[in-house]
Structure formats: C-alpha cells, structure tokens
Amino acid sequence: MQNFEYASPTTKEQAVELLGKQWGETEVIAGGTDLLSLMKDFIVTPKRVVNIKNIAELRGVTINRAGGVRIGALTSLEEMIERLGKGYGALTQAAKEITSPQIRNMGTVGGDLCQRPRCWYFRAGFGLMAKNENGEPLVPNGDNRYHAILGNDGEAKFVSASSLGPGLIALAAKISVFGPKGAREIDADKFFVAPKSASDRETVLAPNEIVTAINIPSTVGVRSATYEVRQREALDWPMAAASVALKLDAAKKVTSARIALGHVAPTPWNAAEAAKFLVGKTITEDVAAEAGKIAVANAKSLSRNAYKIQLAQVAVKRAILQAAG
Amino acid sequence: MLERDAELMVAGTRPSAYAKVKIGAKKDGTIVAWESQAWGSGGVGNFSFANQLPYVLKVADRKEVFSVIPTNTGPQRAWRAPNHPQACLITMSAFEDMAAKLGMDPLDLFMKNLPLAGVRQNVYKDELMKAAEMIEWKKLWRPRGEGAPGSTKNVKRGLGLSLHTWGGGGHASDCDLTVHPDGTVEIKMGTQDLGVGTRTVLAIVAADTFAIPLNQVKVHIGDNRYPVSGGSGGSTTVGGISASTRRASVDALNMILEKVAPTMGTTADKLEAVGGKIVEIGKPTNSMTWKQACAKLGTQPLTTRGKNPGKETLTTGGVGGVQMADVSVDIETGVVKMNNFVAVQDCGLIIDMKTTESQVFGAMIMGVTYALYEERVMDDQTGKMLNANMEFYRLAGLRDIGNFKVHMMTGKGYDERGVIGIGEPPTVSPGAAISNAVANAIGVRVPTLPLTPDRVLAALAKKGGKA
C-alpha cells in the first residue's frame, strides 16, 4: 500500500473541503470493505484518505409517517436490514444476499453505491477500461464471462457491483449528495453512469462530493423483491440480479411497475420497457417470463457471456413472481 | 508462507486432462472395448498421465493415446491424488454414458463390470451396496433426464456414482519412544501434522499398546533433531508413523515384561498389558499396575528406536472407495446444488474413527469445490491469471455442500490389512460422481468441470433446452 495522509473530519463541510478536485488524489473511506483491497493492490493510490465515519449526521435510519424512509449513508447494511424490516423487500433482500456477516456489519449503504467494479482486468491493474500497454481493449477478446450484456456499446464493459442500486431504482429512491456547492438530490436511476474514460468514475458524483443519505418514497401498497442468480450461497457475487417494485389494484392487476437489473451492465439497468409491459396485467408465470424477455431484448453478449442473457431474463421473471407473491 | 494470490499463481496447480472416449459394450452392459484419445497440460513442464485410463476398471481390449501439451502457465503440482480425479472423471462418465445409452441403471452396469477392477472387486461390490443403501439409490434413481423424485418444472434432481482407488502404504519412519520410570511415555519423531491428526494417531498407537490412558503419552514432532520420518505426501504418513510407533511400543513393552516377569513369578511370554496393568495371561489375579511395572526401571528411562518394518507387515497399500451424489440442477439458471453426498471407503485398519471420517469429510468438501467451482482462469492476451483471489477462485462454503454421510469399511477383510493412508482416496471420486448426477438430472452430459452455470446451460442448449 502506498503511504497516504489520513483525515478524519467531523462535519460534511470539512469532509468536502478535504477532498481533491480530481479523481484519484483523494479517496473516501467509510466501511473500507472495498477501498482497502483497492489500495493494497495499488489499484487506487490516493495521497489522502478522508474518513467520514465521524460525521454524525450521516448516520441513522428515519422512517416517516407516510412510510417514506431516509437512510444515512453511513448506515451499515446489517443495520439497514434490521431497521427496515418488511415492506422494502427489493432493498433488504439484496442486502441480505451480501454475504458475509462481516461485510454486512462493516459495509455501508453509501459504500455499496460507490464501490468500484469487480472486473478482473480492472482489479489486475489494467485500468477501468481494461486496456493493455498498447491501449487495446482486453475485454472483447478476453475472458468476459462476467462482463456486461447491456449498455456495453461504449468502452466500459464491466458490470456495476452495487447490490442496492437496482433496488433503489425499483423503489424510485433519491440519493442525497453534498459538495462544495451544497446539497443536491439525484434520482437513483441517474446516479450511476457508464464512465467514458479510465479516469472517470461510475457515478455522477464529483470528486469532492459525498453521498449523505438515501431517500425512499412511501412504500405503502408497493410489493417489491430482488432475485439474484448466484453460484454459491455465500461469499459470492451474483451473475445477474433483478429488483422489482409493483403496485396492484384490488383485482390484482398491475397499476405501476419498476424493474432494474444488476450485474449485467456498467450501471444498474432500468428495464423500463419490461415494467411498462406489466402495467394492466395480472401477474402469471407467462407474463413474468415475457417481461424477462423484454428486459433483455436489447442485450448483446460478448464472446463468452451469452448465458448471462438467460440468467438476467430468469432473474426478472423470478423477482416479479416473488414481488407479486 | 505465500499469500493467496501468489499461492494460486506460482505454487502449482492440478494439471488439466481432456479426452475423447469410445467404449464398446454388449447389450447386457458388459464393457468389452475402450479407446481414449486424451490430452492435458501441466503448464510449463511435462507430466505423466500414462496407464491411468481406463481408471480402475481395466477393460482388456483397449487403446489409449495421451498427449502432453506444455503451456506458458504456472507449473503443475501434485494436488491430492495426482491424476486420479481426472482419470476417474473420464472413465466413470464414459461408463455412466454407456449405461444411459443402454437404458440401464448405472449401479447395475458398474456391478456387472466389477471383475475389471481385479483384486478389489469384492471390496467395491460391498461398497456399492452400502453406498446405494445410504443414498437410497433404488428408491430415488430414475433413468437419465426423467428427474428423481422431488424434481419440479425448473429444478431437476439426479443421482450419480463413481469408484476409485489409491495406494497409501506407509513411508519409511523412525521414532524414539521412551518409557519413564513414573509410567509416562514420550514419542519423538521427525514427522509433521498437517492438521490431519498425526499427533492423535501416534498417541493412540502407544497408549493402546501399553494399555494406558491417552494422557500418559506425550508426542513430540516437527523437529529435525528427532528420528527421520517421511514427508507427508501420497497418503503415506499414517501407515509409516503408526508402524514405527507400534514397533517401538511393542519392543519397549516386551523389555518391561522381561523386567517384571521374575517378580511376578512367571516369564515374559505369559504376560500382557491390559487396562493399565501387567497381567498374567489367564490368571488375572497375578497383576501389577503399569506404574509399578515402570518403577522397576529404576532411575533409567527405557528408550527404544522404532522403524517401520516395511510393506506387507503393519501397513499395506491399495484401497477402494465408492461415492454417490444426489444433486439438484436449476435448468433455467444452470446452478447446481448438492443435496446428499455419500462416501464409502476402506483404508485397512482404522486407528481413530473420528479423525478418519474427518479426512473423508474434508475430501468431500474440496471435492464439491472442484466439481462445481474451482478453476484457474488465465487471460490468453496477457498471460495473467485473472482470478488469483478469494472471490472468483471459488471454494465451496458450508451452505454449498449439502449433507454428507461417510461410512468406513471395517472388520474382517479390512482390519488385518494394517494401516493405510486416507488423505487422498476420497478426493478422487467427487468430480465423477457429481458430474454423473448432473447428467442423470438434466439428461445430458456437461463435458467439463467445474460444472458452472454457463457450461450447464450450454449443454442443455445443445440438447434442445429442456431437461
């Protein structure tokens, strides 16, 4: 690990002040479950690490009377699961699938959104866009079995590692962010971006902005679920995941739907067409399967990951059936 | 000590093996011909796979070709039971495929072909019957692709079996055993405990010989100053160390019996050690406690040098084992889950049942791992290993392994063979048994290990997408 300066501010204003204007100069540490391994492997080499754990106002879960909820960015995944209980299935199911308990206890909600991709070329030091020394991309002709099947037209072929991202999109959450110009709120859907260059990041955050909280609108009447296709039961990343939020009328017809996929694109993937298809329908296995097909209609496999199209499709189908209960 | 990434990149891996196999059988399932064209890579070096195919079941009329393909990757290393798991998978899957082709229950086909296993055919027969009973084979097995009971539209259950062999005779081993005048016993041996129970076994052998409690035996190992005993490899440790300890213990006991015999008014050949005492055989009232007997040593402790007297004495080699797997396969996602996994194994005379069974359990866990998850991923473009880490070099966890059952063959025909190693034999069959179970469940062979979702789905797609 490269030596670094360590700062431990107690207010968000101080934190923002301590952060650099360029990516790479400084890094934010909260749970540290991702940052430390990135630093040990010299994938990031910040000059300064800003610990935000002492900023009290970033903590805590507040559930308001209308059923909306504010989750402080420093809330641990485990605390979020405990506090939310039932009613936020898309989020809590995804968080529970983050194994092990150690990671759920140390890892934070904000950190889940800001963690870096698990692309094995990136983690092996070939940069975010995975290029060799001649600048040639490695993923298209390499081992891309875990790479993107959607949104992979650009240089970014990795998949977003965020477990909560799809659930937040399904629940129409907003992300609160704080920077030098003050606070702003971003739709979860707009928070994640596919970077255009290796020096960019995977979110709309500026280098000197931090996530302060997540705001979920009332989930009264919303049925939601997340389904992850994973090989191992524990300590494994999903190969594909889907989060679904549905509202049904008295006749069990869908009145509104939101669907987002995880681990299939450089960002959590909003499957708006598939969601639209569900509106006005009664959920059956065939309807759910059709929505799954629509969700991956525009998927394009790389040389080795065609199977992920099938997995994503099944994840959507199963998440819908689970949400509809 | 290497860190995980270095361990995976430079310490060496199990060589790969692939094969095209043609086998011929009579309508009744008797296998009559074998032809295999096999190839594999041990990385930068050469490696030998010769004479391994067909594995255990040596079909008389056969032709085998094997090509070694050197690659610019890390070296091969003797993983547990070198070459056996590969040869086992290739052979047992070919036999199972033949059974499916003939519409036979593979249990019947394997039974029918046991004469090909030569000297151990009766061991395998007993083991196949025992394993079948433990996994409820006759109740649960269904023809390939039909799905065992409990199958649903998307999740298919299947059963598979495999059998294996290994040597495991004891290596050369010396030890010094000292009986102190206070009755305590010390063993000094230049061996090591890889976590497999070497200390336990040494203490048990001495304590049993002297008929004294285990806590009166002190074991010292892991030091070059002690008498030389072999390295731990090839499952040769337990046979070697138990033989030299037994020899030293018997010699020491005989010397003590000589010492006490005059006091007891008899001769040494009429004395034995039982329940913490030296007793006249057939006349238990004439006895002396172990402590009293050792006090006769005076001030001088008694030390004997034990040597493994060699093969066909206290240790022999050659074991047989059978494993049966019960799996469920999600045919929409290609994810394979273990339900039950049964291992029936012989390893001659068992010194301690619990440590023996633990060895088998450990082998089964790592067996599930290489059958379903474990794989080195090399990047063709950069020559770099892409998964030298804990996250994509997957190992099975507790929630992945299902239920294990182990049965050790003991009693007549087994105990008198002496002590034989157990580390490697049970690591051989898991890949084959699990692969056969998956083929049975989904109706098509997934031709490569590990049985990952992409490979399972590809096999299903080739077959037309349905199990």
Describe the fold and architecture:
The complex is a heterodimer of chains A (325) and B (467). Chain A is of the alpha+beta class and 325 residues long. Chain A has a single domain, classed as 2-Layer Sandwich (Enolase-like, domain 1). In chain A, 29% of the residues lie in helices and 20% in strands. Chain A has 12 helices and 12 strands. In chain A, the strands form 3 sheets. In chain A, strands 4-5-8-6-7 form a 5-stranded antiparallel beta sheet. In chain A, a hairpin with a 6-residue loop joins β11 and β12. Chain B has 467 residues and is an alpha+beta fold. Chain B has 2 domains: 4-169 and 316-463, 2-Layer Sandwich (Aldehyde Oxidoreductase, domain 4); 174-307, Aldehyde oxidase/xanthine dehydrogenase, molybdopterin binding domain (Aldehyde Oxidoreductase, domain 4). Helix content of chain B is 31%, strand content 22%. Chain B contains 12 helices and 14 strands. Chain B has helices spanning 4-10, 84-102, 106-112, 121-135, 137-140, 198-210, 237-260, 290-295, 353-372, 425-428, 430-442, 453-463; strands at 18-25, 31-40, 61-68, 155-166, 174-179, 185-188, 217-220, 271-274, 277-280, 283-289, 302-307, 319-330, 336-346, 403-409. Chain B has a 4-stranded mixed beta sheet, sandwiched between helices. In chain B, α2 (84-102) runs parallel beside α11 and α9 (353-372) packs across α11. The longest helix of chain B is centred in the middle third of the chain and has 24 residues, at 237-260. The radius of gyration of chain B is 26 Å and the shape is elongated. The chains are: A alpha+beta (325), B alpha+beta (467). Chain A binds chain B through residues 118, 120-121, 123-124, 126, 132, 138, 141-143, 145-146, 229-237, 239, 304-305, 307, 310-311, 314, and chain B through 332-335, 372-373, 377, 379-382, 384, 386-387, 389-392, 394, 396-400, 452-454, 457-458.
